[in-house]
Amino acid sequence: MTSTTPYRSTSIDQRVLELFALVGDSFVGAKEALLHGDTSIATRLVDRERHIDELYGSLQREVSQRLMDDDHRPGELHYLVGIVRIIPELERSGDLAEHIARKAALDLTRDLKPRCRGIMEQMAELGASMWTQASVAFDIQDPAVATRLDQLDENLDDLHVSFMTEVASSTPPIAIAMELALVGRFLERFGDHAVNLARTTASLITQVDPYPKASSED
């Protein structure tokens, strides 16, 4: 029995990769804005977010239209459904990067203890690395990346716990503590999105549902 190559659309793939690149760059910029209190970076990222939203909207409309077509090539429906899952993850990840960048105006890191700041930077660097790996996985159609990102996500979760512990022990003003908690959550969620994207990418290749229904128990 011969194996079949999974269906792909070059034009759609190229725009998905463009979204990956735009969001990844926005996240790195947001990290720099946050760590250095640079509001000028945050302003530029707001403009980039508009571009992300426009690209997301046009891609979503095209995929929705193609889903409504009567005739589909073998594997095309599975591919399009996967893309429908991917593009909202990309758009929400862009929103997270913008949220992080906007926190730069609060200058949250100015009085952070070195260990707390260091953990925040580690979280951001790990999230950026996970994002790059998810993008490469989509580009070269590598299903194995999903398993690696699951493991890295556990490391990110551990860093998140350590970060929150440090924030609590440093007893900052309540308002600052709440903002730092949000930042920690945003960084952790960015990694979650990378994991979800890698899982859905794997499903495009393996034809296996990345989110199978849990078996019911009595």
From TrEMBL:
It comes from Ferrimicrobium acidiphilum. Residues 17-103, 121-200 form the PhoU domain. PANTHER family: PHOSPHATE-SPECIFIC TRANSPORT SYSTEM ACCESSORY PROTEIN PHOU (PTHR42930:SF3). It holds the Pfam family PhoU. This is Phosphate uptake regulator PhoU. InterPro entries: PhoU (IPR028366), PhoU-like_sf (IPR038078), PhoU_dom (IPR026022).
